[in-house]
Amino acid sequence: MKTLIVQRRILIPPESLDRHVSQFLEAARQVIEEAREKYRSYTLELEDIGFSPGEGFVEIKLYFREPEEAELKNIT
Questions:
Q1: How buried is residue 6: exposed, middle or buried, by Cβ count under 10 Å (0-12/13-18/19+)?
Q2: Strand ranges (DSSP E) for 1-76?
Q3: CA–CA separation, 49 vs 61, rounded Å?
Q4: Which of 20, 37, 49, 67 supports an S-S bond with 71, CB 3.0-4.6 Å?
């Protein structure tokens, strides 16, 4: 099983997330779409999302994985 990790900093201070939640979610959605577009030649599923606060930003980590062979047979 192959795993791909994509990480990006979203420039919204963690202490103000409650006031900027829609901007944060839109930025997270954009990171997911960009990763899917960049790696579209792979058969990947978004497995997990992680967030880490930093000074003046929140780091988002996307964990993609290749589906197991049995899962691929169920899709087709």
A1: middle
A2: 3-10, 45-53, 58-65
A3: 6
A4: 67
The pair of three-digit structure tokens given for residue 26, joined into one six-digit string = 């839109």
pTM, to two decimals: 0.72
Spans of the chain, pLDDT less than 50: 70
Provide the residue range defining the domain that includes 31.
3-75
The pLDDT score that the predictor gives to residue 75 is 56
Q: Render pLDDT for 16-26 as a digit per residue (tens, 0 to 9).
A: 999 999 999 99
66, two tokens: 């290749």
Number of domains in the chain: 1
